[in-house]
Amino acid sequence: LAKTTQPISMDSYEGQEVNITCSHNNIATNDYITWYQQFPSQGPRFIIQGYKTKVTNEVASLFIPADRKSSTLSLPRVSLSDTAVYYCLVGNTGGGNKLTFGTGTQLKVEL
Amino acid sequence: ETGVTQTPRHLVMGMTNKKSLKCEQHLGHNAMYWYKQSAKKPLELMFVYSLEERVENNSVPSRFSPECPNSSHLFLHLHTLQPEDSALYLCASSQGWRGNGDDEQFFGPGTRLTVL
Question: In B, which residues are within 8 Å of A6 by CB distance?
Answer without folding.
Answer: none
